Amino acid sequence: MNRTAIICVDDEQTILDSLKIELETSLGDNYLIEMTQGGEEALEVFEELVEDDYEVALVISDYIMPNLKGDELLKRIHTISPKTLKIMLTGQADLEAVGNVINYAKLYRYIPKPWQADDLRITVKEALYSYSQDKALAEKNAQLQTMNQALEKSNREQADLISQLHENENRLRQFLEAMPVGVCVTDAKGKPYLINKAGQQISDRAIIESAKKSQLQDTYQIYLAGTEQLYPKAQNPILRALQGESVAVDDMEIRQRDKMIPVEAWGTPIYDQERNVAYAIAAFQDITERKRAEAERERLLAELSQLNQDLQQANGQLEDYSHNLEEKVEQRTVELKAAQQQIVVQEKLASLGALTAGIAHELRNPLNFVNNYAEGSVELVEEAIEELDNQSEHLDPDALDYLKE
User: Fold this and answer.
1) pLDDT tier, 92 (very low <50, low <70, confident <90, very high otherwise)
2) Of the candidates 185, 191, 183, 188, the residue with the CA atom closest to the CA atom of residue 278
3) CA atoms within a 13 Å half-sphere pointing along the CA-CB vector of 183
4) Strands (E), 134-276
């Protein structure tokens, strides 16, 4: 806080001494009181005080002084420091001079000489009080202006934040509306706060503000899938989220007027800065197609299982048939080999019979034919006998008896 000073200006030292005594008696040491002879000295002292961080609250000046009159001095001081109060103390100033100071230097008071001590004391105290009040008011105004500027800045920032908040809220709503799943938000008491378009389509209902936490299942017709039982409160994703749990269920069913919609739902708590549950958000989607696909998959799996059983049975039958066929083929092969061997023996026996008949015929011919066939006949007989020995075990008993005959 700057110190406060008072400057007294007169060209007579006795006047200055009297002023100093009266002012110090009245004001004590609360103010620095400077005495100057003439206007030029007063301006120099004024500048020095300002440089030393003093506030010159009051200048008391005579009017008639050499070189620089009182009215001109006060106008210059007013130019330098408009807040400094000015008192003219003289017995020689005319009305024009006083009016000039009032108009251009904002003269606070005119006191004629010789002055009354009480009048001077009261006037000076009033001037200093007025200065302090003006200073306090100026400080308050400056503070108020600073506060107003800060408030305006805060209001602009708040307006920007509100605008940004509205923009974010609008963007969030657009995001929620664009989501292909239903989204429902409730406050901490379970009162519905928001439900997006997909959620309204699935539930066939908009926000029901009168709905209570204990009535959500009945209000939105939420059933346990495959039953006529309302969904248990202890398992409701919204209610569990309000208790701080994050859950997922797929056994819910929403009843509309003309159909039942199986849904899968997720519940998540939303916390405030104090980590208290402020909201609960539930996302849910229609899983009709998934349930239909699961049923179709189960049906196909059952069909595949039955086909697999049938195939295994057919494979078993095929294995049995293959085994029987192999046995029959093997048996037939043995029979064919035996028959083939019999045919070979029969052919050789037939050749032997023909040879024997030929030999008998040749024996009737002249002896010159005997020598021609003798060697060949011997070889044939030997081969036939050897073959007969080898095949005799395989010959049909009846055929063997016939040959022997």
Assistant:
1) low
2) 188
3) 15
4) 182-187, 192-195, 222-224, 247-255, 260-271
Domains of the chain by residue range: 3-145, 179-286, 325-404
User: If we measure between CA atoms, which residue out of 290, 238, 240, 236 comes closest to residue 261?
Assistant: 290
The per-residue pLDDT for 24 is 92
Task: Supply the CATH classification number for the domain 179-286.
Answer: 3.30.450.20
Q: Which two tokens stand for residue 281?
A: 């958000």
Residue 95 has a pLDDT of 65
- Cα 81 from Cα 200, distance rounded (Å): 73
pLDDT of residue 85: 93
CATH number of 3-145: 3.40.50.2300
As a whole number of angstroms, the distance between CA 8 and CA 265 comes to 89
Tell me the DSSP string of 264-311: EEEEEEEE-TTS-EEEEEEEEEE-HHHHHHHHHHHHHHHHHHHHHHHH
Q: What is the pLDDT of residues 127-138, one digit of tens each?
A: 999 999 988 998
Residue that is written with structure tokens 């030929």 in the block: 358
Listed in sequence order, the residues at least 6 apart from 175 whose beta carbon sits closer than 8 Å to its beta carbon are: none
How do residues 8-58 score in pLDDT, each as one tens digit? 999 999 999 999 999 999 998 899 999 999 999 999 999 999 999 999 999
pLDDT in the model for residue 318: 83
Closest to 83 measured CA to CA, from 66, 53, 59: 59
